[in-house]
Amino acid sequence: MSPAAQPSGEAELTDPWVALEPGADPVERVRVLRRAHETFTEAGTVPRPVRSVVADSWRRSARAGVGPDGSACVELTDGDLGSYRAEHPLARVMPLFRELMGTFAADGEHLLAVCDAQGRLLWVEGHPGTRQKADGMNFVPGARWAESAVGTNAPGTAVALDRPVQVFAAEHFIRRVQPWTCAAAPVHDPRTGRLLGAVDITGGDGLAHPHSLGFVQAVARAAESQLALLTPAPTTTDVLELTALGRDEALLVAGGSKVRLSRRHSEILVLLSRHPEGLTGDELLCALYEDESVTPVTLRAELARLRRLLGAGVLGSRPYRLTVPVESDVEVVERKLGVGAVMAAVAAYTGPLLPCSGAPAVVRLRRRLADGLRAALVSGRDPDLLADWAHAPWGEDDLDAWRALAAIRPTPPVRARLEELETEQSATRGRAPRAPH
């Protein structure tokens, strides 16, 4: 960019989600991004002018073990893909996607793609020649394009961040995808707000224009509006209520009846409530069991018992999924935290999620929820809320919370507890304790 054009370009870049400012030279931008990508893959540092959203995505991709020379894997084929697509909520708005985007994709030699909340491509349609080229990188229905599987890409990153995003050329993490540019926006269930997937437009450099991002956002909002018209409001008897915070065995309320679940059934319902699109048997095995010797037969037996407990028609299969909405106390805390209602989130948090569960996916969710609450409390610097957290059973050993509390309320008991925790930590790590605050 010339010095004369710089001020205008900087003004446009106030939105970090737009990939290429108007007037910028895409060829030069690609050259700079490729050099930055090589620097990151070799040294682990992200030089300017890589956008922050892309830099963060590259780091997440690397932590997930994605290699720059990797490729997408096809997870669903033939009958499995067909049955999964037919039952997916976004199937109901595919005619709308085709009406709004089909001609644009075909005439512009682009592709219209729709993925689920896990980044699996369900539909890829558009210009035949472009589709043939995309086949070479497995950008095909049934392939998993989650950010954790293939690195930075618009549909995968859009569902990872739950917001619209544009990815231009060498911003893609995997090299074979770098000739492409894409823009994607998430689509939500209009009744529950749950992420259903994302709609994407993929093609050449021309899609780096800000209008492309606005276009997919508008299409996603139109789809949500149509889903609201197509989906009747659930009655109270159609909703499961799941209480799993601070309990080793979750409590399920269905049709006015309360059921105390076994620990394994609690884990399964928590995970399925997080994945309305469903989980395959292999995904559930990995999510539930650390022991790789556990067989699918064991899992199927647990699911059969749970299906009898829930009643007919509540637990679907291929993939395993709940066919009625679930309102869980975990989601209540997340929603309140997401809108900045920290006090309400803390009030709704009655303890760690299934605290004795060792299921890998439950452990991750438990930590993520606690970490999110702690971060909000530390950032908010409300001494009363911090004190409530620190003195709760789950916060009494929380060193970060005690440090934050001591910084704003350094009473002798608080300082004494902080010194005790830091001494314990230092002894564990084999180094001298820090001086008390």
Automatic annotation (TrEMBL):
Gene3D superfamilies: 3.30.450.40. Residues 418-437 are annotated as: Disordered. Keywords: DNA-binding. It comes from Streptomyces phaeochromogenes. This is GAF domain-containing protein. InterPro entries: GAF, GAF-like_dom_sf, OmpR/PhoB-type_DNA-bd. Residues 256-322 form the OmpR/PhoB-type domain.
